[in-house]
Design brief:
Blueprint: E1 8-13, H1 28-42, E2 47-52, H2 60-65, H3 70-94, E3 99-103, E4 112-113, H4 116-124, E5 128-132, H5 142-153, E6 157-162, E7 167-168, E8 180-181, E9 183-185, H6 186-192, H7 199-208, E10 212-216, H8 222-227, E11 234-237
Parallel strand pairs: 1-2, 1-6, 2-5, 3-4, 3-5, 6-10, 9-11
Antiparallel strand pairs: 7-8, 10-11
Helix pairs in contact: 1-3, 5-7, 6-7
């Protein structure tokens, strides 16, 4: 059996990925499936960290557009990511994966404060780590948080799990003739305005030469197949 291609990964999940067939909240079947995927990858000896958005519960940008103060809205969105993180932690530990939630906003009763060296130590001890509350700052998305944390813990790759099987030139749900890219360069993502991650996150990955793999998180086994080296989804590199 071949050695895993990656030794340490960050799995980036949007809050919407947790909806499943719901219009709001968390689909427990989706959470269980994601937990199983992470458990399988941990079983290969790969270090796994996770960053989750909060859009299934609250979107700061949308609330701001409706008149709410942007900074307040963003902080509420960060709290939504903590809810998602705790639910995923529970699911992971039911799969036998020791997990720590580390929050960029201090809330000692629920999560550890984010400390880079402690996060790395958790990973070295075989624990999964979930980074909650984004960067802890308004105006920054959880995409940017995933890129930042990936640099800090020296991850080999960001794996962005989505509802589609890669990056397309336009919305494949609305346009049946949409074309999927097997690979892209960071600069092309920025020039074409492709919705891989936000521009700050992509720029940070480009500056530090960190690959991004965009794949379908709904298909069971995809995460493990990518870790083992299979060409799945869209790869963004230099």
């Amino acid at each position: 059996m071949p050695e895993p291609r990656y030794k340490r990964i960050i799995l980036k999940l949007s809050g919407e990925a947790l909806l499943g067939e719901r219009d709001y909240g968390i689909d427990t079947n989706v959470i269980k499936t994601i937990a199983s995927e992470v458990a399988d990858v941990r079983g290969l000896g790969v270090d796994v960290a996770v960053v989750i958005g909060g859009g299934n519960i609250f979107r700061g940008v949308s609330a701001s557009a409706e008149g709410m103060d942007r900074v307040t809205a963003d902080y509420v969105g960060m709290l939504a990511t903590v809810i998602n993180s705790l639910v995923l932690q529970d699911a992971l530990e039911k799969k036998g994966v020791h997990t720590r939630v580390m929050s960029a906003i201090e809330m000692k009763e629920l999560a550890e404060p984010y400390i880079r060296r402690r996060a790395i130590r958790h990973l070295e001890k075989g624990r999964a780590v979930i980074f909650a509350a984004g960067t802890g700052n308004p105006y920054f998305t959880t995409d940017t948080a995933a890129s930042l944390r990936a640099m800090e813990i020296k991850a080999d790759v960001i794996m962005k799990g989505t509802k589609v099987d890669g990056v397309y030139d336009r919305d494949p749900v609305k346009f049946k003739d949409a074309r999927r890219y097997e690979s892209l360069k960071y600069i092309d993502v920025l020039k074409m305005g492709l919705k891989v991650m936000d521009t700050t996150a992509v720029s940070l990955c480009m500056d530090n030469n960190l690959p991004i793999v965009v794949f379908d998180i709904k298909r069971r086994g995809n995460l493990e197949r990518i870790v083992r080296g299979e060409e799945i989804g869209t790869v963004v590199t230099s």
